[in-house]
């Protein structure tokens, strides 16, 4: 099908009438059909397609008796992202050009769209859209965004265990601390250090040590809530921040983790490697200003657990 635009009623110029017949219409048709972009016109109220240039017809086919959402989206009703309401003022007059980008769900291509309300040849106000294919540019932008997001995530992730790294711990920990201080809610910190980890490396090698660290990280992954912040702080030391948790809840969590670690079956090249850990627990105090204030108390509790024989949980409360 070849869609023709109606003859245009152009104003007189220098007192001479301008030819508004087939020649001007054919010229306009030639211009529009040679644009490397979709151009279409639809009725505001019925969504009937009134015109589509050759670029659009080659991709979306015949428009006779069809509505814009049937042709461009193969839908069963007006699109929920339709911009018609943005193209007219409350008084019904044109509101200017609206420029936006979207991915067409029919052909999966990305387009930059320029929409506006114009007066059609019969005087009514209609929707005009000029859509340029920007798929290559958009895919490059999305790839760059994904690369940046991946790089950012990598900078905050411990590559061996998949847990947050030390940098991420201070980032999310600072947010949890501010939230707890603002809303006067509890916040608990658990510091954990694997016992006799150097012996694992010396006896079985560093690859075996890595397997132990990954196994312990898996136990943490499986027990923490989405709101918690678990991190590998370095070496064999881990930290766990628990928002909305008091000292008793934090101690119970540490004891559950200790039980899991003691019962873990870590096998490397046929050798079963036993594991244990010491825990230090504390909670947020009124006078705490920084995350380091909690970490200092939790570290003292951790060292106390080590001094008392390891493989246990020690709690250091702010008033103790």
UniProtKB/TrEMBL annotation:
Listed InterPro entries: Diguanylate_Cyclase (IPR050469), GGDEF_dom (IPR000160), Nucleotide_cyclase (IPR029787), PAS-like_dom_sf (IPR035965), Rev_trsase/Diguanyl_cyclase (IPR043128)
Cofactor(s) this protein requires: Mg(2+)
This protein's GO CC annotations: plasma membrane
CDD domains for this protein: GGDEF (cd01949)
TM annotation in the entry: none
Reactions catalysed, as given in the entry: 2 GTP = 3',3'-c-di-GMP + 2 diphosphate
PROSITE patterns registered for this protein in UniProt: GGDEF
Name assigned to this protein: diguanylate cyclase
Source organism of the structure: Marinobacter persicus
């Amino acid at each position: 099908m070849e869609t023709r635009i109606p003859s245009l009623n152009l104003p007189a110029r220098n007192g001479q009438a301008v030819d508004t017949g087939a020649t001007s219409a054919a010229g306009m048709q030639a211009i529009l059909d040679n644009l490397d972009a979709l151009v279409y016109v639809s009725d505001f109220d019925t969504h009937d397609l009134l015109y589509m240039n050759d670029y659009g017809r080659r991709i979306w086919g015949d428009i006779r008796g069809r509505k814009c959402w049937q042709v461009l989206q193969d839908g069963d009703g007006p699109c929920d992202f339709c911009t018609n309401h943005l193209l007219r003022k409350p008084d019904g007059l044109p509101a200017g050009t609206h420029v936006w980008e979207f991915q067409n769900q029919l052909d999966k291509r990305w387009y930059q769209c320029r929409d506006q309300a114009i007066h059609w040849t019969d005087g009514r106000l209609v929707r005009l859209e000029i859509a340029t294919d920007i798929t290559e540019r958009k895919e490059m932008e999305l790839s760059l965004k994904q690369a940046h997001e991946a790089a950012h995530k990598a900078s905050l992730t411990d590559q061996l265990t998949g847990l947050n790294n030390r940098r991420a711990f201070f980032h999310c920990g600072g947010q949890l601390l501010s939230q707890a201080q603002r809303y006067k809610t509890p916040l608990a910190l658990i510091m954990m250090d694997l016992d006799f980890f150097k012996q694992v490396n010396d006896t079985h090698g560093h690859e075996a040590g890595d397997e132990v660290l990954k196994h312990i990280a898996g136990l943490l992954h499986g027990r923490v809530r989405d709101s918690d912040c678990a991190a590998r702080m370095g070496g064999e030391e881990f930290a766990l921040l628990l928002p909305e948790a008091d000292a008793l809840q934090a101690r119970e969590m540490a004891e559950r983790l200790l039980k899991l670690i003691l019962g873990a079956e870590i096998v490397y090249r046929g050798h079963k490697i036993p594991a244990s850990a010491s825990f230090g627990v504390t909670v947020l105090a009124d006078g705490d200003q920084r995350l380091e204030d909690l970490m200092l108390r939790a570290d003292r509790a951790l060292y106390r657990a080590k001094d008392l024989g390891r493989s246990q949980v020690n709690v250091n409360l702010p008033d103790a």
